[in-house]
Amino acid sequence: MDPTRAGLRTRHLREIGLDRKRQLNRADWVTTARGIHVPAYLLDEPDLPTVATAIAAMGDQGALGGWAALLCHGVPFFDGKTYGPRALVHCLPGSRLRPRPTIKPFQGLVHDDELVEVGGVRFATIARAGFDEMRMARGLEDAVVVADMTSSKLTPGGRTSLAAIERVVRSHHKVRGIVRATEALVLAHERSASPWETRLRLRAVRDVGLRELLVNVPVFDRFDHLLGIADLLDPSTGLVLESDGAQHRLIGQHREDNEREEEFEHAGLTVARFTAADHVDRWGLVGRIERARQRAARSVAPRRWTLEAPAWWSTWEPGRRYR
């Protein structure tokens, strides 16, 4: 179901031939805000009622922004549970939109090239929506996660580029959170594959001082075989930091992870794995990274790995996303 077409104001119910009292007294429709109703089946998806309500409320005098726009653009990792509960709406000239429990009106400047219209509904572009979530983030680390995930070349779905986000940032001045957004761009990377991987990278870079980390880089042996894709690699010591999300607990994925780790270590790399639970204790996590770095630096294992890609890598279709 397309949430952009689902929400209806009360006056629109009759326009499409629905009897207001009959429909609203049944379980077909749910009132999500004063004068706004959405089909009850949208409640099966927690974010769709919020998106549909915001679009119905703003009408043609607003543009959906922030996480809700990113969700509609198909950008992974953005939802109301993480970034909500309120959907940001850019108020265009003539708008009289008021704050509601699930709607956050924004009266600030938005340029014409920061908006796109799809099916008669205006949305902030991915770059603009990412900028807004970056400046509204709780801290610098959260802002970097937004920048990484909106520009990631490794995740499926919609994306922009860090250059596009930077152009948006530079076109605005006196807006709350712009300093945080500017600082986040310095730390952002377009090859991060997940929020937890970004957070692990920030711990390694900012707290341990591993400034030269390579992100999702292919590693080969001396016989031109692909050993695997290292989440984070310090080329000077041969330290590999792996970020394991929930999917890594699946039997098939877990087996692949173990096989890749064995290949890495046989080639002389030092591997340290981390999960979301490790991030609960920031300095415990930092200590683990530092100890792994020291092990890698002291290692006397012969180097049997290389970052020099063989000729076949440039034409191997499964490797395209990592090139």
Can you give keywords for this protein?
single chain, alpha+beta, five-stranded mixed β-sheet, 13 strands, elongated, DUF559, DUF559 domain-containing protein
What string, H for helix and E for strand, traces the elements in order? EHHEEHEHHEEEEHHHHHEEEHEHE
Please state the CA-atom Rg, rounded to the nearest Å. Answer: 23 Å
**SS-based class:** alpha+beta
Question: Biggest sheet, open or closed, and with what strands and sense?
Answer: 5 strands, mixed
Strand order of the largest sheet: 12-11-10-9-13
**In one word, what is the shape?**
elongated
Supply the number of structural domains.
2
Mean pLDDT across the residues is: 90
Q: First CA to last CA: what distance? A: 36 Å
Low-confidence stretches: none
Helix % is 25-40%
The total count of strands amounts to 13
Please report which band the strand proportion falls in: under 5%, 5-15%, 15-25%, 25-35%, 35-45% or over 45%. 15-25%
Number of helices: 12
